[in-house]
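Subgroup meeting minutes
Present: P.N., E.W., G.H.
Scribe: E.W.

1. P.N. recapped why we're keeping a running log of single-chain structure predictions: easier to compare across weeks, and new members can see raw inputs and outputs side by side.
2. G.H. added today's entry (299 aa).
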Amino acid sequence: MKQLLLVLTIAVGFSSCGKLKTVLDKAETIPDKMDNLNTGMGETNASVRLQKLGIFEGMVLDQDNYEMLAPFPADLMTGGKFLGEALTTEEALMWVFKSIKKINTYDINSNPLLDAQDAKVQAKFDHDKLGLYMAVTIVSGYLRDSVIDDIVQRIYTSDRFTETGLQILALRAKFYSDVMLGGSLYTEKFATLGHVKEAIDYNSKIERIARLPYPQAIKVDIVGMLTPEMNEAMSVQFDPAIVNANWSKIKTLGEAGFEVKPLSGNNTADQAEAKRQRDVFNSYISFLNGKIQQAQSLN
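Output recorded in log:
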């Protein structure tokens, strides 16, 4: 009986050997197919990403969004935020490089379609360049912190785009000081914890730049505007002193404007929330006092 079972087992094995080999052969091709699938998905994702970048860039280059540029460039903010947050280090350096290059070298006389002697044409020419400049400023402000870390490292190692990296740092500081603080938060009453927190977050980004050992090199020189006064106004020389001035202003605005306003309608819950808000506010003021005292001790 045992011998019969052995014979049957061997017979079945021989009869299914061909099928088994076919299965194994197919199995061996699975890793290659998975690699091809992953490659295809990667290419698709890269293609989708580039399409999104093109859309975001189109938003910041759309001259219809240049109508309102000061004190707060509202129409440029969305596209600038999306583009800045999406760019890699290399893409950010290349995009800012070409944009500043265009601002500084594009000559009205080089375009035969423009009447270089027409005052209105001249005004629009400068305004469009100003719009691009503001777009670069916003994008520089919204670059991810990891990208800024890479740019600082590339400046340290004397990278080909060191000057562009320094320009990005200067425009980033300008963005948070002039746009997000000066053009936005400082125009409002600091009535909430959110006002104080955001102001601290913005100035902390400026402080990060101020701590670098080469503040005099952090600058942007604009020379391509038809109006000389605009060249001067758009050029930036980073001043680390703005950080301490902002700490003091944030504290002043916070102490003058903050109001405890729990709104649940439940007395017990509101009392607890009021205490929490006061505690958080006091922690912010303590933080600001520490920054101000630190600055005073260094003077």
